[in-house]
Write a structure and sequence with these properties.
Elements lengths: L11 E3 L5 E2 L6 E2 L2 E3 L4 E3 L6 E4 L1 E3 L2 E3 L7
Length: 67
C-alpha cells in the first residue's frame, strides 16, 4: 500500500472560478466564504466584497449597477 498524505484543512471555500480585482485593495482574489458566513471576503485585505441577505424564505441580492 502507498503512504497516506496529510492535506491542510481549508476553513473556507473559493467563491469565484477566476481571479477578480478587489475594489478595496486592488489585489487579485477569488473571494473566500467561511462556514456559516453570508459574506464573500477578499483573501488579501479581508474586506467584505459581497454580503448575502436573507429575509424569511426570500434571498435578497442588491447589485451595484442596478440590475
Amino acid at each position: 500500500m502507498g503512504n497516506v498524505l496529510d492535506f491542510p484543512t481549508m476553513k473556507f471555500v473559493r467563491f469565484y472560478r477566476d481571479y477578480i480585482e478587489c475594489d478595496f485593495c486592488g489585489e487579485l482574489t477569488k473571494g473566500r466564504v467561511y462556514e456559516d458566513s453570508q459574506e464573500i471576503i477578499c483573501g488579501s485585505c479581508n474586506s467584505v466584497l459581497f454580503e448575502f441577505e436573507t429575509s424569511d424564505q426570500t434571498i435578497v441580492i442588491e447589485l451595484e449597477d442596478g440590475e
